[in-house]
Automatic annotation (TrEMBL):
It comes from Brassica campestris (Field mustard). CDD domains: AdoMet_MTases. This is Trimethylguanosine synthase. The lineage of its organism: Eukaryota, Viridiplantae, Streptophyta, Embryophyta, Tracheophyta. It comes from the Eukaryota. Catalyzes the 2 serial methylation steps for the conversion of the 7-monomethylguanosine (m(7)G) caps of snRNAs and snoRNAs to a 2,2,7-trimethylguanosine (m(2,2,7)G) cap structure. The enzyme is specific for guanine, and N7 methylation must precede N2 methylation. Hypermethylation of the m7G cap of U snRNAs leads to their concentration in nuclear foci, their colocalization with coilin and the formation of canonical Cajal bodies (CBs). Plays a role in transcriptional regulation. Keywords: Cytoplasm, Methyltransferase, Nucleus, Phosphoprotein, S-adenosyl-L-methionine, Transcription, Transcription regulation, Transferase. One of its GO terms (molecular function) is RNA cap trimethylguanosine synthase activity.
Length: 223
């Protein structure tokens, strides 16, 4: 997206006239409570940023840890991790997203706790070190809810099994933020097929009492 596209989108946002993002725009303060202080979001970002209340919940598990936000987008999760963790590595393949995430982390005053990286997570993975990996991988756009059961092979750009294998080589502490219709049996399978098997905790991520996504917390069994 060019700078011109962005400012056009911004004007449409302000007028509430972009029908594609309107239903997300009305939730802007649920996405970023400090939205009015200069938050930047592009069209893809509107669809995929984690609601702030849920991002705060994810971060609760990461006090004092080094967190890798593997598909950071415009930084909704990164910001909340940065508030409580020891540091955050925020990766996104799209330089514009990283620029927006940096801007947004600045709005929240936490940018100095974050290493922002423009790059392909899959290429970077072998060189990454951290205590927790957070994955909110592309769900394939808003159409994910049109299927009855969201399967691991619908995750992009690689299926959930390959993604999980790669991320496990960094740390067994993995948080995955997934569609609410994700196949839970497949998540159990990811945990049980790991060597050694991982503990899995499933959480319904809710806004206003309504489940909007699933968060899966994987960790190594205590010996
Ligand atoms: P959704 O399908 O949930 O809307 P997106 O397509 O917006 O997800 O993708 C989520 C984020 O992941 C985007 O910010 C995108 O730029 C980023 N992303 C996609 N592929 C990679 C990758 N290989 N490495 C790092 N970031 C990636």
């Amino acid at each position: 997206m060019t700078i011109d596209d962005q400012s056009h989108l911004k004007k449409e946002e302000e007028n509430g006239t972009n029908p594609k993002i309107n239903r997300y725009w009305i939730q802007r303060y649920d996405l970023f409570s400090r939205y009015d202080e200069g938050i930047q979001i592009d069209e893809e970002g509107w669809y995929s940023v984690t609601h702030e209340e849920i991002a705060i919940n994810h971060a609760e598990r990461c006090h004092g840890k080094v967190v890798i936000d593997c598909f950071a987008g415009v930084g909704g999760n990164t910001i909340q991790f940065a508030k409580v963790s020891s540091s955050v590595i925020a990766i996104d393949i799209d330089p514009m997203k990283v620029q927006m995430a940096m801007n947004n982390a600045n709005v929240y005053g936490v940018a100095n706790h974050v290493d922002f990286v423009v790059g392909d997570f899959f290429s970077l993975a072998p060189s990454l070190k951290g205590d927790v990996s957070f994955l909110s991988p592309p769900w394939g756009g808003p159409n994910y809810c049109k299927v009855e059961s969201f399967k691991m092979d619908m995750l992009q750009p690689r299926d959930g099994y390959s993604l999980f294998k790669i991320v496990q080589s960094i740390t067994p502490n993995i948080i995955m933020y997934l569609p609410k219709n994700v196949d839970l049996a497949q998540l159990e399978e990811l945990a049980s097929l790991s060597s050694p098997p991982l503990t899995l905790e499933i959480e319904e991520s809710c806004i206003g009492g309504k489940m909007i996504a699933i968060t899966a917390y994987f960790s190594r069994n205590a010996a």
